Every structure is written in C-alpha cells, then in structure tokens.
Amino acid sequence: MTESGSKNYKITGVIAVSIAAAMWGLDGVVLTPRLYNLDVRWVVFVLHIIPFVLMNIFFYKEYKHVLSLTKADWLTFFLISLFGGAIGTIAIVKALFLVNFHNLSVIVLLQKLQPVFAISLASILLKEKLQKYFILWASLAIVASYFLTFGLSLPDFHQDRNTIYAVLLSLLAAFSFGSSTVFSKKILTKYTFPTATFFRYGITTAIMLFVVLVSGTFDQFSKTTSENWLFFLIISFTTGSGAIYLYYYGLVRIRAIMATIAELFFPVSAIFFDYLVNGKMLSAVQWIAAVIMIFAIIKLTGKAAKQ
Questions:
Q1: Which residue among 29, 123, 197, 237 has its CA within the 20 to 30 Å range from the CA of 20?
Q2: 211 assigned to some structural domain
Q3: What average pLDDT does the chain have?
Q4: Which residues does 174 contact at the CB level (< 8 Å), separation at least 6?
Q5: Domain range for residue 191?
Q6: Does 1 map to a domain?
Q7: Which of 154, 162, 171, 183 is nearest to 76 (CA)?
C-alpha cells in the first residue's frame, strides 16, 4: 500500500469510528430512554434479534465459519457477546431507565472509563505488570468521574438512590464493554469485521433468548407499543448493528490511541443531544471533571499503545 493509500486507509478508519461513537451518543440520550416502559431484558433481546434477522439476509454466507471455528474462537465470541452484548447492554439500558431522563449525559460519559477496565483485563490475561502511568491516569479518571456524577456535593443515599444505582450499572457497563473490546481485538486478528459482527449478534441473541425464557418476560411483547417498535427499528438499523459494523470497520484500520480520540465524539454528542433534546446541561464542575476524565483516558490509552 502506498503512503497516500495508507493515509486514506487510516482516515477512513477514524471517520468510521467517529460516526459510530456519535451514533452511540444519540442512542444513549435520545433513543433507548424512550423504551423505559418495557422490561430491560426484553429490550436488549429485541435490540439484538431484529438486526440479526436482517444480517441473515445479507450475511448468510458467514455460516460457513461455523464448522471451522475452534473451541477458542467460540469461547472468544461467547465472551464478546456475553460482556459486550448481554451484560454491558443490560447494565447501560437499565442505568438510562433509572435516571428517568435526568443525568443522561453523565451516565453515558461514565462509559468512557472503558479503557481503565480494558487495560486492567488485558494486563491480567497477558500477565503483565501494570505500569506506574496506569495507576496515575486511571486514578485521576476515577476521581474525575466522581465529580462528574455528584459535582461538589456528597451523594444522598436516599434522595439519589436511583442515580447511585445508575452510576454503578454504568460502571458495570464500562467494565463489560472494555472487556468486550479486548476480546474483539483478539478475534479481529483472525476474522473480518462482518464475521465478528454477525457472530456477536447471533450469540447475544441466543443468550438473551435464554434470559427472556427463564425470566418469563415474553409477556412484554403484548406491552410493546407501536412507538416502541418504531424506536426498536430505528436503533436496530442505525445506532445498534449499524454503529457496531462501522466501529469494527474502523477499528481494524487505526491504532488504539487514534480510536480513543475518535471515540470522543461519543461523550461530545451525548452532551450535545442531552442539551438539544432534553434541555439538560452539565454544571461548571461537571464540565471540568468531564474534560479531566477524558484527558486522563487519552493519556492512559496513548501510553498503553506505545508499550
């Protein structure tokens, strides 16, 4: 590949990740919260089965990999689906429902802590000692996340109960998505992004079908309104599978630090849409905390990429 071709290759990757990140910001603040009247397990199941059915029309040839996948491949795809598809999505959707259109951008912003968990997990799996820079920048990011959530006030465990639960769930989502990123990077060295997307959605659909059956939440079908179905379709074709596809497409073209910078469109778009649609704006302290947290994450990811 020529120098010009390589540059265009990377630019395409940055643009793809940036668009995917902005779409996730839109989803977290504007789209998914509109499904608050439904059980979260049903929501996550439908958000995966609709795109997977569509993928079967266009990517049915991906089934050819079923017989050639090794046990390690199946395990990796399962972990990607379990953490990034099931647990992570359930946690963040429940968090968005709990705040009832308040602090939506805060809950979304907390997901930027993903690299802290991703690097920690990668260190455990690769048995590498965490460097001093990680302790420094990760600690700064975590402290900043506290001020992002509560400002200069102490949390009221009675009045702010739902917010505290939402924050904990958002952190669980950050851990889950960060874990999924580690496994996704591994699988993308062997399979293409269409294959990764196809199996991620297929296995997540199977996991969530099991959850829905065991929990007896199929009765949510009759409670799903026409407006709910409209948002399901919009999310499925855009901020759901569409964004995941774009993200994987871009991820294989750029380095980790470039992806992290491109992903800044996620919190920026979340703040923008929260103000535009819900009239919510971060306080001065929250703005400062958000900038410090994101800066710490960039430094953290940048140094990790150079190791």
A1: 123
A2: yes
A3: 82
A4: 110, 111, 112, 113, 114, 116, 117
A5: 9-306
A6: no
A7: 183
